[in-house]
Amino acid sequence: MLALLIGLGRWQLRRAAEKQGLYDAFAAGGGSTLMVDGATAPVARYQHLEARGHYDSDRQVLIDNMVSVEGRAGYYVITPFALDGGGWLLVNRGWVPLGASRQSKPEVAIESDERVIHGRADHLPVPGIHLGTAAKLKAPFPAVADFPSLGELSALLQINTWSPATDVLLLDKGEAGGYLRAWSAPGILPMRHLAYAAQWFGLALTLAVIYVVTNLRRVTHD
Question: Are residues 55 and 108 in the same domain?
Fold first, then answer.
């Protein structure tokens, strides 16, 4: 039991280091802006990007099971963005609330005029635990998806010429054409993991003290 408690404390320390790395990367990503096109090499996660082109409003995806900071259920609105000079980029335009039912999809149309957009590079959202096999994505659009991969989105949207720069661009809060956006590094704060680690180590210390005291009393009694 002592080894288990110490192991759990060390695991929380590792999780704290991982989360601190993500928070540091998010802070560093806003230090410069990189122009992205269809041939841009992969960039660091959370790198701030600029892209020129236009949205394809006819082929959009709603990623289901997304929760707002207030705990409300809803969708992420994912819109393909045709880059000037060729290539495509997926843009996460933010969070919209769930309607009366999932049969009542939100209105997410956007004009396809030429524009410049800004945001951060990121991965597509993934579930904490995979439960079963997701249903195959299909029209009509906007199609509802449950944690889709880039390959699944490529098949649904019939687009294969994605920019290698990033899986998805998180549209900046101040950009037009977006919804609720409160981007940050994912997960709980690193300090929370440190607090959990302290709890596990505290329990380990308590167990060790109980073990020593109990055995000392036994020896004294004998």
Answer: yes
